[in-house]
Amino acid sequence: MERNNNLHRQVASLRQSLFDQGYVDEQFIELEELQDDATPNFVEEVVTLFYNDSARLIHNIDQSLEEHPLDFAKLDNFMHQFKGSSSSIGAKKVKIECTKFMEYCRAGNVEGCKGTFQQLKREYAVLRKKLEVYFQYARPAGPTDTASYRPK
Predict the structure, then answer these.
(1) Angle, vertex CA 121, rays to CA 33 and CA 34, nearest 5
(2) Where in the sequence is Phosphohistidine found (predicted)?
(3) Are 79 and 98 in contact (CB under 8 A)?
(4) What residues contact residue 118 under an 8 Å CB cut-off, 6+ apart?
(5) Is position 56 within any domain?
(6) What pLDDT was estimated at residue 152?
(7) How high is the pLDDT of residue 44?
(8) Residue 144: pLDDT above 60?
């Protein structure tokens, strides 16, 4: 019982740090509230779908950034999809980088797009690692009151 309590505390601490460090926002809570006994891994499944879908988008954006001249409308469209997916799981820092990228697209700023895309990929990778650790601990901890955190 004590081990389980410690595990729940660890999970709560990991989860809190995702919010405190600005990696996720309120949308993550919304996802958690949809999770129940019938779908105990709902959040993890949605996040996995996000990473599967976004891998394709990253590939498409990478390829499009190699084209000459750049097709800013196509890049903006890909990034709009990426931003929507990021928003759906509450990936706050990734979403911020998507917005910056789209602003550079609209301004026709090649270097801004490329630099922001590199930063977006870094934020995306860090979030992925943090969520992997979180879910790794959350699975064995089992159900808990996950929606108790409210952003400041």
Answers:
(1) 10
(2) 80
(3) yes
(4) none
(5) yes
(6) 45
(7) 94
(8) no
Whether the pTM exceeds 0.85: the reply is: yes
Q: Which helix (H) or strand (E) holds 14?
A: helix 2-20
Dist. CA 144–CA 40, nearest whole Å: 10
- The dihedrals phi and psi of 36, each to the nearest 5 degrees, come to -145, -170
**Can you tell me the distance from the alpha carbon of 27 to that of 10, in angstroms, rounded to the nearest whole number?**
22
Q: Residue 47: CB partners within 8 Å, gap ≥ 6?
A: 89, 131, 135
Tokens in use for 112?
Answer: 């801004």
Residues 6+ positions from 9 with CB-CB distance below 8 Å: none
Domain membership of residue 28 (yes or no) is: yes
Structure tokens that stand for 31 in this block: 């996802």
Q: For residues 96 and 121, is the Cβ–Cβ distance under 8 A?
A: no
Q: Domain containing 19: what range? A: 2-144
In the chain, the number of structural domains is: 1
User: 61: domain CATH number?
Assistant: 1.20.120.160
Closest among 137, 119, 108 to 44, alpha carbons compared: 137
